[in-house]
Design brief:
The mean pLDDT is 94. The chain is of the alpha/beta class and 294 residues long.
Length: 294
């Protein structure tokens, strides 16, 4: 390969993980957040089911979104950016055959890595209470189906277990072991409670497969920096919902100010101007390109 452009986003992520790098992936939820994250210099992005629910439905992450809504969101993102996108495939949106369709659709939409979890349906955010699980055997069948469905080996399959909250930490370790034996490309043990549990996970699996650490502000897992998590043995670090929480907080202040003052002027120091936003989204380049077809 002669340049970065010669490598697909999926291939780029696979190479970084194979080289032992630790990838920091911020949460995104649409093309604008993806574009700004790419411009900031991130080497991977993370599209969570929760972020899709928050921003497209204004609802919680409790299994309300459909596969099509997630795929359509991903299509718009990968049409705009080249940075690899790790996408949350929830439970595969059904059984093993549904999972195969989900994987094919996500892959065609440009996913670099597809995450699948062992929750029952309807699933819910991994840091909410009262989750349910499918059996380990059923999950293994879905993972094998997912691996068979992908068109390219560069499209990575990430297996997630939510068993800590339902069956306990030891059971989660056994499930992760079974999922790894299916041939998945990465593992995600969700909602570990302590750094000691992080270390146990990394000692058991870190030398064999890339591990994902999920950093949820106010969630069940201690939030640590990517530098510390790298040292502990994690290779993928995500902050999936931080973007939506930051934007929601900012918009609360913006709308309150506008209602109170009747103008946006007090918020101008915290906003982009019309021209600045057009620079970010590439309006001058788009208008210049359009002249070629006049």
């Amino acid at each position: 390969m002669s340049s970065h452009e010669d490598v697909s986003p999926s291939g780029a992520l696979k190479r970084r993980l194979a080289a032992g790098e630790t990838v920091l992936a911020p949460g995104i939820y649409d093309s604008l957040t993806a574009l700004i994250a790419e411009q900031a210099g991130f080497q991977a992005l993370y599209l969570s089911g929760g972020a899709v629910a928050y921003t497209s439905l204004g609802r919680s992450d409790v299994g309300l979104t459909t596969a099509k809504e997630a795929v359509d969101t991903l299509w718009r993102i990968t049409d705009r950016v080249r940075t690899p996108v790790i996408v949350d495939g929830d439970t595969g949106f059904g059984n093993a055959l549904n999972t195969q369709r989900t994987v094919r659709d996500f892959e065609r939409a440009g996913a670099a890595m597809i995450q699948l979890e062992d929750q029952g349906f309807p699933k819910r955010c991994g840091h909410l209470a009262d989750k349910t699980l499918v059996s380990s055997a059923e999950m293994c069948g879905k993972l094998r189906a997912a691996l068979d469905a992908r068109h390219s080996a560069d499209t990575l399959i990430l297996a997630r277990t939510d068993a800590i909250a339902v069956e306990g930490f030891d059971a989660a370790m056994e499930r992760a072991e079974a999922y790894l034996a299916c041939g998945v490309d990465a593992l995600f043990v969700e909602a570990v409670h302590t750094v000691e549990q992080m270390d146990i996970v990394c000692r058991r699996f870190g030398e064999r497969v890339p591990l994902l650490a999920n950093m949820v502000e106010g969630g069940k897992t201690p939030v640590r920096s990517v530098a510390e998590l790298r040292q502990r043995g994690y290779r993928i670090v995500i902050f999936p919902g931080g973007t939506a929480r930051f934007v929601a907080h900012g918009l609360q202040g913006y709308y309150a100010s506008l209602l109170n003052h009747g103008t946006t002027e007090p918020m101008w120091p915290q906003m982009l101007t019309f021209d600045q936003l057009n620079e970010v989204i590439g309006t001058p380049e788009l208008l210049a390109a359009s002249k070629r077809y006049v």
